[in-house]
Amino acid sequence: MVKAKKRRATFALYKTEFRLQRKSSIWWLGVLGVLMIITLLMYPLVDMMMGVIPEDVLEQMEQAGMSFEFGGVTSYLLMQGVQTLALGGSLFLCCFSANTIMRDFKGKQSELLYTNALSRSDIVLTKYSSCLTMTAVFNVFMLIIELVCMCIIDIDGVQIVPILALFLYSIVLNLILVNITLALYLLKRKGGYGIAIAVPLVLYFLGAIAYAVSMQVPFLSYLTPFTPFYDITADAPFDANLYPFIIYAVIAVGLFIWGINKFNKRDFA
Amino acid sequence: MLAIEVANAKKTYLNKIVGIENVSFNIKYGEIFGYIGPNGAGKSTTIRALMGCLKLDSGLMNIEGHDCFTDGVNARENVGYVPSELSFYNSMTVRKYIEFIMDLKGRGYEKIDELCTYFELNANRKTGELSLGNKKKLAIVCALACSPKVLIMDEATTGLDPIMQQKFFDILQKEKKKGTAVLLSSHNLNEIQRCCDRVGIIKNGNLVAIKEIGEFKAKLMKHVVFETKYSLPDIYLDGIENLKVDGNRYEFNYHGDMKALNDFVAGLDIVNLSIVDVDLNEEFMRWY
Question: Which of A132, A245, B62, B274 gives a 20 to 30 Å CA spacing to B69?
Fold first, then answer.
């Protein structure tokens, strides 16, 4: 009886999270989906342009760290679609996660939400599960868009394994960032989207810097969970350096546990 | 078992401001307990601590025998709560919001229509479009729709028009008859006078008095005004306060023996006489 009550309460809260963020989620998914479609549909044009660039110019560009040898639509996705998937997705999911916690304290809804027969942990974990679901929804949505677009452009160039690797890496990255964002908002509770935007943005640019100077400063690649994205190739999709993921996963889980623990003991003044 | 038990509760905020100090009171089932004090006296601190939003520095707060912070889930199991500051999910309709709260409490929807009709609340309106009074009604409906055994209401009548206030007090009396324990916080003393069995007065975080409302009323001062044909040299009567003399017109507050007042007035050549109860507000103001 008690379990049934708790199940009903948590399910109601879970449903409400999606209902309250329905409009913003549709906007985010729509914008990121369109960005991915545009990126992929530009492949034939970009490929054609690459064909007319003189060899010596391409060589110079490669020496400067800019590689434009796509070798097929899958490689093109791994190089150009990553920004939309990794950065755009992380921004969306971090904002979604931040809003689940922040909203109740910003408008004092917490007085009615946290005063029912549900523990603070139950409420936070239910909100967390809605973030996990949204992470899955986002990645599946983008995977479908990628596959459909790639099949339209060049069905022969579609390689399933690298695309699935990208899908899995994206999920892991999103989960890490969702955990970190939720933990920071559990500690902070109020405020705007600053942290939710800053966390993925800072780590993303750190990743870009780490990639550019990876030969000179190799340890930098361990400072951001975005680095494995730069290592995925169509030929060796699972050969990326996964240590940044492991390091950040440990940090994210630790932070989240600490965040819940602090949140449970705090005053809601 | 007591519905609400508070013993030596103390709460200090991070900035060292004392919220409450040494607050103790009990509320039985079927009792309406009024909790009054001016703004910032510690009413909301007490109530937020009871609802598990604040952790006490020391002391005890139990609802139905469960500690409000460490065993908050069980403590809040049968509690209906009306907070002083209201905020809802603006995009939800009134009905959806009440259903959501009932889902969180694990209760049925059967009382929603009846209560919305009683409080004249349009269940199809968005909560974001509601006025303050209607928001208050929504919070009251949410608290009552779960058939609570304990009702905790923080300034529940703020924003309600007099008709709705009357309806609210009527329904509180019904809840009382059903055996519900009610903690009603307010700084409006008249409403406490209208419906409470006992009253606790809080001042600067300290509970300065707990009295039966009847006891308060019995000790109420009388406001006496009379006019005589001839002026009096002086008035010798114990229990007179704030004597004002204007020609042959005498006005004062009286808290002495009524028989003595009666005998005193009987010996005068009275033209006009008025003896009325001092408003409860004035009585309570003596504490501040």
Answer: A132
Is the reported ipTM for this assembly greater than 0.90? no
**Distance from the A136 Cα atom to the nearest Cα atom in chain B, whole angstroms:** 25
Q: Is A107 touching B (CB cutoff 8 A)?
A: yes
Round to whole Å and give the CA distance between B219 and B226. 22
Q: Judge: A111–B76 Cβ closer than 8 Å, yes or no.
A: no
Chain B: which residues have CB within 8 Å of chain A? 13, 48, 51-55, 72-74, 76-77, 79, 81, 83, 85-89, 91-92, 100-101, 103-106, 139, 142
Rg (CA), chain B: 23
Three-state SS annotation for B141-159 = HHHHHCCCCEEEEECCCCC
pLDDT confidence tier of residue B223, bands split at 50, 70 and 90? confident
What residue numbers bound the domain in which A104 lies?
2-41+72-264
- Cα–Cα dist A76/A68, whole Å: 9
Comparing A187-201, A248-262, B51-65, the range with the smallest average pLDDT is: A187-201
Q: Which residues pair with A66 in a beta bridge?
A: none
In a domain, A48, yes or no: no
A51 is a domain residue: no
pLDDT in tens, B122-175: 999 999 999 999 999 999 999 999 999 999 999 888 888 889 999 999 999 999
Q: Model pTM?
A: 0.84
Is residue A216 included in any domain, yes or no?
Answer: yes
Reply yes or no on whether the pLDDT at B85 is more than 90.
no
Q: Are strands B150-154 and B79-82 parallel, antiparallel or unpaired?
A: parallel
B52/A265 touch (CB, cutoff 8 Å), yes or no: no
SS3 label, residue B213: helix
